[in-house]
């Protein structure tokens, strides 16, 4: 399957109002902000979107808003994962996937399946759709690791499994995937801080959280790294580093939402069990945001 999604992606946040309802106008603003900021593709309904706290109706409405506002300007990837394989297959069948360019499917969480269980889960997903599928390995959140061997087995066995978002932080594992992947199989960093080293090893792009607030800076970082202009990429990395270190201190996406709320783009609300960051961290982030300047 021909698939060429590369560069800077953003795991888009979901804005809420004070009553916990999805704020669709703010979501439209976020879509425009990403496109205008040079982001190469949007990931809707990922972890950063607080998807586990969204009902199926909410998810469908969020997808409709993003898809409508995006209107094909850049590619759209849809988060579609779960820890109940049968239910996930039903969701894939029932969602209107018009205009969706690929699915991003996180490893089943909490169940802690074996590697064979993970293989069979993704085999079912691959057989349920003709859309390209990007695997998503984030052991810190899910409690299980999709190994390089299983990733490569899936990549070779299913033509529509076209890439992986790797957030394991295991350089050996990621390098193994990069060295032995089939032609055309994409590897994306799932960690903002590891963008440059993973691109230097051959990764095709990044799916970012911080890009929600700094799309231009992050897209420039990725663009320069992919072009081999590492001096310029590192300049952007150094400017973003204090922000990235702070926004994850009290959980994601609370930190990046706080920055966007301070700018008046969204309200700072999250859905329980997630909560807003402390006043101390808000002050630190505001100071960093107020002082923000790109590299000369």
Reconstruct the topology from this structure.
Layout: E1 7-11, H1 24-36, E2 41-44, H2 56-70, E3 76-79, H3 85-94, E4 102-106, H4 115-128, E5 133-137, H5 139-142, H6 148-157, E6 161-166, H7 171-180, E7 186-189, H8 195-201, E8 205-208, H9 215-226, H10 230-247, H11 254-262, H12 279-290
Parallel strand pairs: 1-2, 1-8, 2-3, 3-4, 4-5, 5-6, 6-7, 7-8
Describe this structure in words.
The protein is of the alpha/beta class. It has a single domain (7-229), classed as TIM Barrel, CATH 3.20.20. 45% of the residues lie in helices and 12% in strands. It is built from twelve helices and eight strands. The chain has helices at residues 24-36, 56-70, 85-94, 115-128, 139-142, 148-157, 171-180, 195-201, 215-226, 230-247, 254-262, 279-290; strands spanning 7-11, 41-44, 76-79, 102-106, 133-137, 161-166, 186-189, 205-208. The protein has an eight-stranded parallel β-barrel with strand order 1-2-3-4-5-6-7-8, surrounded by seven helices. β1 (7-11), α1 and β2 (41-44) form a beta-alpha-beta unit. α9 (215-226) runs antiparallel to α10 (230-247).
Descriptive labels:
296 residues, alpha/beta, TIM Barrel, eight-stranded parallel β-barrel, 12 helices
Query: How would you sum up the major sheet?
Result: 8 strands, parallel, barrel
Rounded to an integer in angstroms, the radius of gyration calculated over CA atoms is: 18 Å
Number of domains: 1
Number of helices: 12
A few lines on this structure:
The protein is an alpha/beta fold.
């Amino acid at each position: 399957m021909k698939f060429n999604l590369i560069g800077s992606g953003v795991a888009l946040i979901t804005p809420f109002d004070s009553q916990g309802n999805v704020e669709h106008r703010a979501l439209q603003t976020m879509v425009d902000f990403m496109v205008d900021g040079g982001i190469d593709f949007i990931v809707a309904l990922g972890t950063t979107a607080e998807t586990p706290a969204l009902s199926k109706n909410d998810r469908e409405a969020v997808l409709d808003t993003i898809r409508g506002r995006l209107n094909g300007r850049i590619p759209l990837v849809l988060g579609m994962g779960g820890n109940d394989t049968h239910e996930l297959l039903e969701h894939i069948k029932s969602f209107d996937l018009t205009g969706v360019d690929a699915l991003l499917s996180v490893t089943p969480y909490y169940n802690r399946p074996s590697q064979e269980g993970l293989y069979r889960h993704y085999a079912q997903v691959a057989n349920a759709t003709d859309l390209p599928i990007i695997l998503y390995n984030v052991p810190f959140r899910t409690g299980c690791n999709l190994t390089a061997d299983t990733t490569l087995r899936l990549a070779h066995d299913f033509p529509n499994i076209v890439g992986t978002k790797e957030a394991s932080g295991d350089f050996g594992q990621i390098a193994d995937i990069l060295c032995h992947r089939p032609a055309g199989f994409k590897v994306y960093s799932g960690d903002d801080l590891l963008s440059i080293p993973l691109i230097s090893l051959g990764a095709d792009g990044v799916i970012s959280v911080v890009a929600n607030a700094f799309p231009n800076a992050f897209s420039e970082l990725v663009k320069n790294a992919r072009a081999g202009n590492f001096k310029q990429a590192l300049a952007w990395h150094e400017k973003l580093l204090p922000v990235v270190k702070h926004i994850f201190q009290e959980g994601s996406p609370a930190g990046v939402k706080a920055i966007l709320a301070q700018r008046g783009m969204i309200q700072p609300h999250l859905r329980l069990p997630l909560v807003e960051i402390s006043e101390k961290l808000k002050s630190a982030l505001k100071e960093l945001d107020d002082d923000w300047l790109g590299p000369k």
